[in-house]
């Protein structure tokens, strides 16, 4: 049995952070109902190219972006700005265990879909709000987006080459990492609230903010600042606390060296025919190497260029020195370890035949993640849900379509 079997989630969220949290819960066995606008749905359905192709190789109308965060869900189209739509959304919330939303603070109160209103009819409801800045504070009413939060939350001050180097300056991460992290924290909060509900019988409100998550995920860099009072600088691919821990050129490209202790550094120097560097007091310890990185790194680069990436990896792995290639995504999905872990899978789809997916990294021995469907078509399950959950007749559903509620 799936870990979250029997849990129903009403997902009112859009774009990435909320849908990512909903997909995690769906992978773990929850029934996730995605509520979308009639006619258009989640904005990311149109965020292409690339678009998923049908069996004949023709582009469909659904972007790959949308399919990254919405598998294992059901889609219902519902306009809850209309009175009839509000009533249906409230009825669905009454029968749900969890609700996820990412509207502006206070935006759902006008429709009776805010937490106080729904708590009154469903005290067991766990209500997760995802916003840019949280439910309180001077920025609470502002909209928040991943890119701007990466900047405001300090991540871009740490990412990119130093200003003194060619191409230097702040840089965002290559994926919407703040959204992803917020989705992960949201799922964790929801799971914790479900455990708490088992003890008390009561639900609760979860207040998630992109800015909070970004600052929390600064990890050692935040602590470096809080302890030293000095704002860390951009170091490109280098590490602020460990040296050498960055990219190095090879005879045919580049590789990563991730040396975490003095033994590993000595082992590398032996293989690179520069043992004198490990014996040098300026480089013998990690603290010394961090202090003298500007002198050490050019000396190491002069050594790494004489072997290919594959040669280095073979030698360094045999000596237990952490290292690796810098792969593009074609190389990632061709990698034997990625294949062995089953990270690429295909899920059935009524129009496209199948849709490629990246598997969940969760590996549970007793209640494993399960996959049953690709992301749903817009409104694919509307009639089924209105009939099975809310008991509407065919005539009532037809009338709702006529007035544009569904």
Automatic annotation (TrEMBL):
InterPro entries linked to this entry: CoA-transferase_III_domain, CoA-Trfase_fam_III, CoA-Trfase_III_dom3_sf, CoA-Trfase_III_dom_1_sf
Tree of life domain: Bacteria
MF annotations from Gene Ontology: CoA-transferase activity
Keywords: Transferase
Protein's name in the database: CoA-transferase
Organism: Ventosimonas gracilis
Upper taxonomic lineage: Bacteria, Pseudomonadati, Pseudomonadota, Gammaproteobacteria, Pseudomonadales
């Amino acid at each position: 049995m799936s870990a979250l079997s029997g849990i129903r989630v009403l997902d009112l969220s859009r774009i990435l952070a909320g849908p990512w949290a909903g997909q995690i819960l769906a992978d773990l066995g929850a029934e996730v109902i995605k509520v979308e606008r009639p006619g258009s749905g989640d904005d990311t359905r149109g965020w292409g190219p690339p678009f998923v192709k049908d069996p004949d190789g023709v582009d469909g109308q659904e972007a790959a972006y949308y399919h990254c965060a919405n598998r294992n869900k059901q889609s219902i189209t519902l306009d809850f700005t209309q009175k009839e739509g509000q009533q249906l959304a409230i009825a669905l919330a009454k029968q749900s265990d969890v609700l996820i939303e990412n509207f502006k603070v206070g935006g759902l109160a006008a429709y009776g879909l805010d937490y106080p209103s729904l708590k009154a009819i469903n005290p067991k409801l766990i209500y997760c709000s995802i916003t840019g800045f949280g439910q309180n504070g001077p920025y609470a009413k502002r909209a928040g987006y991943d890119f701007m939060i990466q900047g405001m939350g300090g991540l871009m001050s740490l990412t990119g080459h130093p200003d003194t180097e060619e191409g230097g300056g702040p840089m965002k991460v290559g994926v919407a990492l703040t959204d992803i992290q917020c989705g992960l924290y949201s799922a964790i909060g929801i799971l914790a609230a479900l455990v708490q509900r088992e003890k008390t019988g009561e639900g609760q409100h979860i207040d998630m903010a992109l800015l909070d998550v970004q600052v929390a995920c600064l990890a050692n860099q935040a602590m470096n600042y809080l302890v030293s009072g000095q704002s860390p600088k951009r170091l490109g691919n280098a590490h602020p606390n460990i040296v050498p821990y960055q990219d190095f050129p090879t005879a045919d490209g580049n590789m990563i060296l991730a040396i975490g202790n003095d033994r590993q550094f000595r082992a590398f120097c032996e293989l690179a025919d520069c043992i004198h560097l490990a014996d040098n007091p300026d480089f013998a310890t990690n603290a010394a190497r961090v202090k003298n990185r500007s002198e050490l790194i050019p000396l190491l680069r002069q050594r790494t260029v004489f072997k290919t990436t594959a040669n280095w990896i073979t030698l360094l792995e045999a000596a237990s020195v952490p290292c690796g290639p810098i792969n593009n995504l074609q190389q990632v999905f061709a990698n034997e370890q990625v294949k062995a872990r089953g990270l690429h899978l295909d899920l059935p789809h009524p129009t496209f035949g199948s849709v490629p997916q990246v598997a969940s990294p969760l590996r549970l021995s007793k209640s494993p993640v399960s996959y049953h469907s690709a992301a749903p078509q817009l409104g694919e399950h509307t009639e089924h849900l209105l009939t099975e959950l809310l008991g509407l007749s065919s005539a009532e559903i037809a009338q709702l379509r006529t007035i544009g509620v569904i």
